[in-house]
Amino acid sequence: MRERSALSPPPLGESPGSRLPRWIPDAPGEEAALLSALGIASIDELFADVPKKARIGKMGVGPSHEEPEVVREVDRLLDRNKPLSKFANFVGGRIAPRYSPAAVDAIVSRSEFYTAYTPYQPEASQGMLRALFEFQSLWVELTGLDVANASLYDGATAAGEALLFCHRVRDGGRRFLVPASLPWEEKSVLRNYASGPGLALDEIPYHEGTGRLDLDWVRAAVATGDVFGVLADVPNGFGHVDEGVADLKEILGAIPLVVAADPLALSVLEPPGNYGADVVVGEGQGFGIPPSYGGPLLGLFACRSEHVRLAPGRIVGATRDADGRPAYTLTLQTREQHIRRSRATSNICTNQSLMALAFTVYASVVGPRGLATLQTSLAEKARTLASGLGGIEGIRAPRFDAPYLGDFTIELARGTPREFLDRLRRRKVLGGHPLADPRPGAEPAPARVLVSATEGIGDKEIQKYIRSARAAMEVA
Amino acid sequence: MSFRQARWDEPAIWDLAPPNSTDPPPVIPGIPERMRRKTAVRWPELSELEVVRHFTRLSQMNFGIDTSPYPLGSCTMKYNPKVSELLARRPGAADLHPEQPEETAQGALEILWRLERLLGRVTGLPEVSLQAAAGAHGEWAALLMVRAYFRDRGELDRRTEVLLPDTAHGTNPASAMMAGFTTRELPSKEGCVDLTALRAAVGDRTACFMLTNPNTAGLFESDILEIAETVHGVGGTLYYDGANLNAILGVTHPGRMGFDVAHLNLHKTFATPHGGGGPGAGVLAAGEKLGPYLPVPRVVKQGRKFRLDYDRPKSIGKIKTAYGNFGLDLRAYAFALTHGEEGLRHVARRAVLNSNYLGLRMGRSLPRPFRTLVKHEFLLSGAPLKARGVRTLDLAKRLLDEGVHAPTVYFPSLVEEALMVELPETESKRVLDEYVAAFERSLADSPENLRAAPRSLAVGRIDEVRAAREPLLSWKDLRAAAGKAETPGAVAPG
Fold it and tell me: 20 to 30 Å CA-CA from B20: which of A105, A218, A475, B132?
């Protein structure tokens, strides 16, 4: 049957396709000894409590395979991918393809770390707890806030948790405001987080020329008394740094402000805590975590001390052991689902601890000066590229008159982003990604592309992009 | 007792170097003055070797499956195959951006598509999405799908209640709350759903009944078909928490048992590493009724091409930035491909055999609260220890001194002083026997020694009350505390 072979390849080589994986112990007599201890003749007897009518026949998932066959088959599939390194790559945004020093993966590959579970027995898990404590401390230093949790799933879900957090902090109001320029998938995730408690997500319009938030609109919205929180991102969905974000807290007063910030940008930008952010969330993937087609990622979350008991997620605290020596443990757990159940601050259980470790090792290997230097170099590349693209007829680059770091938005006068990007790809250039909701029925969007100066590109790739873009627009 | 964990006197990373310069970072042209960082990020400037040595030392103060049997009940701590680690690091897997064109990621899409088809067959729920980052994330998304379904039927106003047994994982009620439902926990009977109580509880307010089968007591809910009939009879939906799927692979599946939607944890049944707390990988599997509500995009095959399909008008939308935890999905696919039909079936059989054997052996020392035919895990009650002035917690800490991890403790709450034990199919009889011996030695130790445990680890018994009462949650807190104590330079917490 075709379907079966589509799920898993036919047996390769000489495999009989029936041997059990060696990961399940099968020493001679082992199973018999276990059965005999239990006084039963067959394992089937252990399933006597599964009613006949509930049983299934074959699942239809194909034969087993030996390890070399699995490697060959998975490699065959992976060979059908074209990794970013095959291109001059300008695709980035919240998920940043960035070089990670080999030391990061060497540490993350220590199986004492990666094969551990959540540190429920802290005495046996000091290594991970201490690494997470250092991670929390690092996010606190980057954001200027007081407390960070031990990670959430990704940047978008961290923003979603921040929305619910604001609703707990500000008991009243039904509207949460986000920039209209926020990437569509983040808005979609946020709408889902808002939908449970019946909250509304409203979009703050931006100025057409600069992409900056319309602060008058925010003022008017706040005056309705129905706003319980506001999120703004730095850089924003267009890649720009909007200094209006620093004016938001004055408008909001007691209403909590969430800033979604890029960690690398925070190596050169004012910590949002210094301009009134009550929560700072972010996507941490760019620090030592490969993009891996979108996951695993790393959700970052920090807040102020006075709100820590309303915060989502696991938190590691410092304490002492029975002999008075420094020790670390998961703490403030009465916020969490395994204790508080339906009254927990969040349902999160599994988080992204190993990614938090990678983040910390990356930042420590690169160091604060290295991070700022990297961000400065990306910004320089972006400026060179934007000025080159801006000289091409039919491309507005950058689309918005506003400062930027490594990412910026271009707008095409004709043709669709997809056509433009396809033409670039034929010349081995990945030119960025379209900023539009791909769902049928979504509002028609301007022909905009988010372009990222990634770490792997140099002047040669930048010039190649500019040449390819010119050629693409000539035929558009 | 001959075990000793490494006990490095390793300072915190910020104490490895003098404070770094506070000079501001370089100025990036165009960035307004007020948005510029005025002082460098406060973090040490270290050599790469110092960083590597620091984290290597930390790693040596951590238990993992690779160092110790790790019998956490409901966590299914099986061997994480090394070949999966190798494959996930290939450039064709790691160096892919979710926004790169589908034409350049055909292999990744095919892996996702194959894994989804495979999981559709394993669960009997053919519509599958891998977007969820973890189990609880999947639970929440599934309940949003239930909401959307009842909204379409015009029943959302009255279908506001989610029912669950008192043995449910804490994530179940928490997810239900986040999805906007109220929850009601039903007392179980001898560790299983009390069908009479369920029949009395369901009604036209019931949106969903959430169930783990086998449940957290390790028992198979043999009334499952009647349970499904009861819930469906009042128009409700039935949710399968797949945390314990490992025990029933190839024997039964959520589809056959009558569930409408399920989440699975690939980091349990499909052996992807749990990373000291995460990442996980969640799976959403649904039947006809709820399938149309799954998050977008869906991975589809058209001719010989794979693509992401956004044209799902009933979909709840996105639940995560990108599609899912691809790096974990790939590992799970390699696991499934290795096992195949027979291998997966054998996983469940051996896991259940191990569990029953271990239950028999450990049950000679402590009482087992419910029937003894169990699936992947079993419960013990540490209540009798109290007569000796000892608690389950002391026993758990004493086990650590044997170089083995402790079982899950104090869950589920319906059993006094509970221990929940699961050593899955990758553990040999020798390891099981050694675990039993360590358990018996621990029990036989003096109450004083039990209360003083652990003594062989990097630290002794940790004061958790102090951690919660005087929270010190970052370096910043430690600096403030040190300042308050007027001991400049002091770095030790407290």
Answer: A105
